[in-house]
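Researcher: Hi, I'm a grad student and pretty new to this. My advisor asked me to get structures for two proteins we've been looking at. I'm not sure of the right format, so I'll just paste the first sequence and hope you can take it from there.
Model: That works fine. Here's the first sequence with its structure tokens right after it:
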Amino acid sequence: MSRSLDLRNYALVTGAYWADTITDGAIRVLVLFSFHELGYSPFAVASLFLFYEVFGIVTNLVGGWLAARFGLRATLFGGLSTQLVALLMLAVVPASWLVVAYVMVSQALSGIAKDLTKMSAKSAVKLVVPTDAPGALYRWVAVLTGSKNALKGVGFFVGGLLLTVIGFQPALFVLAAIVLSALIVVAVMMRGELGRPDRRARFGQMFSNSRAVNVLAGARIFLFASRDVWFVVGLPVFLRAELGWSFWQVGTFLAVWVIGYGAVQALAPRLMRRRTRARGADPDGTTATWLAFALAAFPAAIAVVLATGLDAGAVIVAGLIAFGVIFALNSAVHSYLILAYADGDRVAMNVGFYYMANAGGRLTGTVLSGALYQWRGLQACLWASVAFVLVAGLLSRMLPARGSTITAAPTAGLRAAHGDTT
């Protein structure tokens, strides 16, 4: 396949990923606030997303193998189709069907869809990134990851707006139309495969033999648990129930935060240029370590200041902005390192294994966010965040000090992963 066709297909994969990301963020807000307003406890609301995260773990584990065996095109179509089913499950049924168990099944499908499309898009980066441009992989990954998170913020905004203007189920039809449009565009415009499938790929190869990949996956679990343990349920419920914010205000605030978070991720190579230049062209394990330890200071500071009785709204807004900047830089470094550490001939499998760990962190954070908030409020969630970040920092100390020294040759390796050994 020509490089121009690879780039075209990659653009289609990325566009589909963006469409799925917007709907994923919107669903989260719709489900969260609809069930909170029905009187469900914070822990019960968190449980709605339990299968979303559990099946995200399974999907990333199996999805990497499926992508290596059947190609990224197959996993992309599977992700979009599954998201469409998940949306219609909630949109077309009577309101009496919308009980916890039914919504959990729908969210399980949504989690499968999100992780299939994410794995497809992020694996595709290594196929098309220029191999003769220093730092190109870091920049490309940062832009993709940052744009995804910015659009998830747009999804939060869209979800809050649609819930306010047209209500829960009509909003789901709008989101289904977005996903269906993306599916049609990809089906009509994509030519050939994005990479070539390898029918010899074995499921057992999913589990990495690389110490760097395994340590990074462990750090990722705790890093994302540190965010979701207070951001997913505790924070929005606190803003709504304790501070009296409206759906519109909470949705807009979360949207602006995630958009800004994504922008910082996209700009991470530029923002950290001076720091990384002193150590080499790209970030390494040391970079991930100091960012994690720096991050721990912010939820601790928010918890301490909240206890003094100062204006909670101002403390939350300022603290979350500061937390978001450092977290975004840390996440961008992780997203680069997994591709740098990935075996060239198993990149989709390594990425799937890594994002399985990512989903595990989100699952842990989501469940604890509801449980801790119901038990001791937002401050308990914040102190749990501190503990998780510190563990992520300790694990990051075990990463190679120079990511650039273990980076595989990306293009040749990925060709091998898809059966092209010429």
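Researcher: Oh nice, that was easy. Here's the second one.
Model: And its structure:
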Amino acid sequence: MKSGFVAVAGRPNVGKSTLVNALCGEKIAITSKVPNTTRRRLFGVAHGPDYQLALVDLPGFQRPMDPLTERMQRTVDSSFEDVDAVLLVVDARAHIGSGDRFVARRVFGLEKPVIIALNKVDRLKPAHIATQMKAAAALGDFHALHPVSAKTKEGVGELRGDLVYLLPEGPAYFPSEQTTDLALEERIAEVIREKALHLTREEVPHAISVEVEEIEEKRLRALVYCETESQKGILVGKKGAMVREIGTRARPEVEALLGHPVFLELQVKVRPKWRRDPRMLERLGL
């Protein structure tokens, strides 16, 4: 049995969480086009007949702007201590520049094997992919470089095989049926937040957080937090239309996690400057 931990690193919005989901074969982490969607470290576990690959999905590297992003960056920094390898993800559709080089300097300084994934290659011309591969190859002394599409799964199998190759022999760290370390309540809260991110305008997403308050057999109650009354107005929508739509979109995934139908009750609450409140961040597990 080969088993171990691989940290997934990269700038915000390069597709790290989508790639973790593709490598694990199911949805583990929420995704959106909003930078810094991933706020906490989570494990996505890929199981095979003779391996267990634990992918450590991390927030993107960033310059901290408030206590929340300070905690996110500390999570990133501390997560490299006990991993067996690093998966460095770069965006094939964006300029590979100073931000990627900043992350690469940190990653390649760990003296651990690094695999580079050039993500989002679907619908790109071969010549453009070749140019981006050359730019990615200049980031450091890598073990392998894989052009992949987390969206279409192109190249994901080969990437998974190379990651498993780097793992040491060891025990299974997770039960065979476990694909993430997130608690059920945390997974449900993240699903609701994902739908809110998809539906709200630019000024709202970074101020949204979700807490599952109560789970009963036929009813689930969750609180959607924001920071201002104007944000609450957007989240609630005209005659409650927005919050109902968030619930409608979240319910199928929530019911799949629970294994049975449920009435999903969402309440929007204003918590001014919650991203700067250590007690609130602790309460939300951030």
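Researcher: Is there anything I should tell my advisor about the second?
Model: You could mention this: The first strand starts at residue 2 and ends at 9.
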